[in-house]
User: Fold this.
Amino acid sequence: MTNLFDLTGKVAVVTGANTGIGQAIALALAQAGADLACVGRTPAEDTVGRAQQLGRRAEVLSADLSTIEPVQRVIDETLEKLGRLDILVNNAGIIRRADAVDFTEADWDAVIDTNLKSVFFLCQAAGRHMIGQGAGKIINIASMLTFQGGIRVPSYTASKSGVGGITKLLANEWAAKGVQVNAIAPGYIATNNTTALQADEVRNKAIMDRIPAGRWGDPGDLGGAAVFLASAASDYVTGHILAVDGGWLAR
Ligand code: NAP
Assistant:
């Protein structure tokens, strides 16, 4: 039987691939056989080096995704340097915390521009290419706050709820064209993004008490879901938001 999860010969673009969830997903895809375009504002040299050690082709692509200015270049450079584009993982994201009554326009715009606007236009640029070739896999990184309200993170909640919405919209438009669009909703994962929460004793305890698995997630916990959604194993899965949360939402 052919390996449904094999990504040999596929090319994946992963944004924010230098650290945390993006790095873990990039390396899981490389382990499954994919070559990588590692996109971000901090060069993903470590990720590229580790992918090359696995025998993959891997390139660093510099791009600040706080605006959509570099979006088309990211897709063009991927095609120039790696020759194809099969998988897009929209992982780069930021968070700003403040009480809703004090929340600033700057913190609203920064998060929406990076987490939602750039994600949509990267989907669009990659999608045009994927529709042309009749195949492609897009994986957006959502959040528990795609489903829940959260607290003190209004622009983040709006952005990740929006990511859920555009994932389903694009799935509807592109399903018959061979392009599957899904999202992964990580639970509470120990990365730079959650350092403040991990350090806050009261919030940390409240979070831990609610996670049925009894631990924070590790970025590596997202690898299996990403390989599944990037591979032929998920060819009839589209518009789905897959929670990888240690049971958080089931609680
Ligand atoms: P992280 O360690 O802070 O990584 C965020 C990544 O996004 C970094 O590579 C960062 O690059 C990149 N990035 C941020 N702004 C960018 C910009 N303007 N241009 C290009 N790249 C940019 O956080 P993480 O936890 O791995 O987060 C990855 C994704 O998972 C995010 O979308 C986040 O919202 C989501 N998520 C995380 C959790 C969690 O519990 N950790 C839960 C749900 C969802 P730099 O290193 O240069 O800043």
About this structure: Residues 15-16, 18-22, 40-42, 64-66, 91-94, 114, 141, 143, 186, 188-189, 191-194 surround NAP (CB under 6 Å). The helical segments are 20-31, 45-53, 71-82, 105-133, 154-174, 195-199, 201-210, 223-230. Strands lie at 11-15, 35-40, 58-62, 87-90, 136-141, 179-186, 241-244. DSSP finds eight helices and seven strands in the chain.
